[in-house]
């Protein structure tokens, strides 16, 4: 096994110095409807910087319309308004990122994202509204914040039908913004808010299609917040009983959110997606399949065959920002050298340099091999390194792979004190 992988890497891997050194990836990605850019952790600078570099080229050279990320809709929409120039000129990217206040805030409130936001704002500066590139969050965690945003939007619109929103808000209110408490009440005692949420989404669905030009995207935002409330309600209700199914609820929601964004931007629109490798790399080629788990990469490939291009990322060693437990202070931790015979260790053994691979006929020797592939979450324990590897057929899970031999931690703009409960 070792010799086969090393021979393939030696033959197919090329030195990596940024997108300009990997034009073959760009040419294939530029033709896709969805370009999925992964990461092996949520706290590594190189992944953010490199995805930003790829995104800039896809936007400027191929006309990609938006970046969708593994983040909450309300806080990302604040940043979206900033990059499109809809906020006060005196506000900078740092201020626009203040809405990322809940743990793990470093995922998006970091220097690397701030620099991309400034670039996007400058790029959008002289463009008409319908040509500006957006930045959106497609995750499910913003149940309470999204409810508040919906109420705020409808209260500012004379004659709006706000009653459905008030009913949904009142249904959730007794649970005191405690997702676990809500999940227990809904799952075990039948005290859920599913009907109210479905009715709210129905009231707001597709209203952007008939909205005035200056309200069109805000009307979309109201619908997307309602979608996030619906997804969050289902996620927290399901999580109490079925961890694997709650994962599936989350990833199906993210695909639905992506499709809503495509519809808003036009059926020919192309999207860039930033998420962890565990979301963008096809789950069918990992041990997730044994748990009946699906993910964004799998769902998009199944539905949009030939229109999806997924890029995985990895590193041999370095540093990362993460927490020791959910909600604990962010720490800069050491990422130890990859374990022997893992995908990352074999890439390092071939030579301690950054590399890229485009999977295809010349990497077919990898297609039947399952290798350990490192995945670091927002909660991380370097001393338990053996448990941080996902059995993976790498050449099937992704269309291309970018490897950094040594990486460093992102630079958070601040440390968040609040945690998701």
From TrEMBL:
InterPro entries noted in UniProt: Emycin_Estase, Hydrolase/PRTase-associated, UCP036794_erythomycin
Pfam families: Erythro_esteras (PF05139)
Highest taxon of the lineage: Bacteria
GO BP terms: response to antibiotic
SUPFAM superfamilies: EreA/ChaN-like
Name recorded for this polypeptide: Erythromycin esterase family protein
Originating species: Paenibacillus nanensis
């Amino acid at each position: 096994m070792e010799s086969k992988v090393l021979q393939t890497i030696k033959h197919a891997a090329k030195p990596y110095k940024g997108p300009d050194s990997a034009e073959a990836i760009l040419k294939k990605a530029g033709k896709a409807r969805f370009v999925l850019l992964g990461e092996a952790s949520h706290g590594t600078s190189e992944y953010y910087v490199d995805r930003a570099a790829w995104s800039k080229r896809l936007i400027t050279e191929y006309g990609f319309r938006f970046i969708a990320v593994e983040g909450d809709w309300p806080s990302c929409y604040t940043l979206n308004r900033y990059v499109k120039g809809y906020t006060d000129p005196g506000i900078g990217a740092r201020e626009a990122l203040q809405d990322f206040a809940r743990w793990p805030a470093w995922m998006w409130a970091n220097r690397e994202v701030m620099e991309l936001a400034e670039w996007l704002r400058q790029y959008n500066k002289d463009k008409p509204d319908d040509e500006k590139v957006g930045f959106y969050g497609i995750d499910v965690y913003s149940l309470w914040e999204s409810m508040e945003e919906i109420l705020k939007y409808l209260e500012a619109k004379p004659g709006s039908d706000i009653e459905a929103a008030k009913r949904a808000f009142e249904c959730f209110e007794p649970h005191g913004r405690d997702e676990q408490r809500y999940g227990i009440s809904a799952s075990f005692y039948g005290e859920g808010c599913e009907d109210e949420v479905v009715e709210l989404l129905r009231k707001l669905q597709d209203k952007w299609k008939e909205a005035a030009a200056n309200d069109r995207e805000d009307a979309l935002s109201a619908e997307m917040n309602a979608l996030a409330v619906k997804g969050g309600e289902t996620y927290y209700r399901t999580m109490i009983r079925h961890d694997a199914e709650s994962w599936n609820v989350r990833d199906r929601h993210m695909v639905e959110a992506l499709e809503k964004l495509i519809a808003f931007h036009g059926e020919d629109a192309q999207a860039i997606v930033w998420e962890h490798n565990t979301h963008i790399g096809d789950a069918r080629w990992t041990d997730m399949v044994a748990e009946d788990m699906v993910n964004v990469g799998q769902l998009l490939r199944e539905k949009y065959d030939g229109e999806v291009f997924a890029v995985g990322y990895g590193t041999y060693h370095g540093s990362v920002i993460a927490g020791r437990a959910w909600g604990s202070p962010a720490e800069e931790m050491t990422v130890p050298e990859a374990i022997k015979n893992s995908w990352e260790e074999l890439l390092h053994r071939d030579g301690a340099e950054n590399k890229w691979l485009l999977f295809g006929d010349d990497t077919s020797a990898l297609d039947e091999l399952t290798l350990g592939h490192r995945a670091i979450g927002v909660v991380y324990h370097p001393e338990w390194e053996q448990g941080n590897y996902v059995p993976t057929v790498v050449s099937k899970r992704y269309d291309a792979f970018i490897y950094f031999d040594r990486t460093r931690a992102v630079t958070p703009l601040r440390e968040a004190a609040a945690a998701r409960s």
